[in-house]
Write a structure and sequence with these properties.
Double Stranded RNA Binding Domain, alpha+beta, 4 strands, 2 helices, elongated, about 130 residues, four-stranded mixed β-sheet
């Protein structure tokens, strides 16, 4: 999993960038085999005016699954990064779970249809027997 950090905030030094990388690595560690690339963008929406304006956008590329984007916003950079990382992890898990659920539905569907057809035939036979046919 490759992680690149981009920022428009000038005071974002190399230590902070490394802390951002570690935070994302720790949060996404269990899913890292599925993720090929992570791009993190940190911007200051209001500039020097302050306030809740640090925005972290995490873009993930997953082979065979497409991309995932998550955003976090806070007054502090690392809080925004942690929020975006948690949201990204949740989205990746949901995407993987949906794919697994879809596979299971496709596998079980023919068997379920066959079972339903047998049940319908049995019900029709019971109805015919009750009607005296």
């Amino acid at each position: 999993m490759q992680i690149s950090v981009n920022s428009t905030i000038r005071r974002l030094n190399s230590r902070t960038r490394e802390a951002i990388r570690r935070s994302l690595q720790d949060t996404l560690e269990r899913l890292s085999s599925r993720i090929s690339r992570v791009t993190v963008s940190v911007i200051d929406e209001n500039g020097p005016r302050g306030g809740v304006d640090k925005v972290c956008r995490v873009n993930l590329v997953m082979e065979g699954f497409g991309g995932v984007t998550a955003t976090g916003k806070s007054e502090q950079v690392m809080v925004a990064v942690a929020e975006a990382a948690r949201r990204a992890r949740r989205k990746v898990r949901d995407k993987l779970k949906r794919r697994i659920d879809r596979r299971q539905r496709v596998r079980t569907r023919p068997a379920e249809l066959a079972a339903a057809a047998v049940a319908d035939a049995d019900a029709d036979a019971d109805a015919d027997a009750d009607a005296g046919l």
